[in-house]
């Protein structure tokens, strides 16, 4: 049994792909930074060591990465719904 989709096919724009892959990359980087801090803590690093070197950058990516990726996904979904709504109203 095959079902026909009555909605018109909406092409995927370059901006949509950029938003999707950037959100995925930022979320993956945030998860990797989370594991880096967990491993660093397990290896016995004290609190003062996390304030030096590359650790402030890792902490910033962890702190801001997932919320930024979430906002990017919400923007992507909103743009997609608007575009599909406009395409269905035209036909």
Automatic annotation (TrEMBL):
It comes from the Bacteria. The chain crosses the membrane at residues 18-41, 61-82. Keywords: Membrane, Transmembrane, Transmembrane helix. This is Multidrug ABC transporter ATPase. The lineage of its organism: Bacteria, Bacillati, Actinomycetota, Actinomycetes, Micrococcales.
């Amino acid at each position: 049994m095959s079902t026909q989709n009555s909605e018109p096919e909406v092409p995927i724009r370059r901006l949509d792909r950029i938003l999707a892959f950037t959100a995925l990359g930022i979320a993956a980087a945030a998860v990797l930074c989370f594991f880096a801090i967990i491993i660093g803590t397990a290896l016995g690093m004290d609190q003062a060591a996390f304030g030096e070197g590359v650790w402030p950058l890792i902490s910033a990516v962890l702190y801001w990465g997932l919320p930024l990726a979430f906002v990017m996904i919400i923007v992507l979904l909103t743009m997609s719904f608007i575009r599909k709504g406009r395409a269905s109203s035209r036909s």
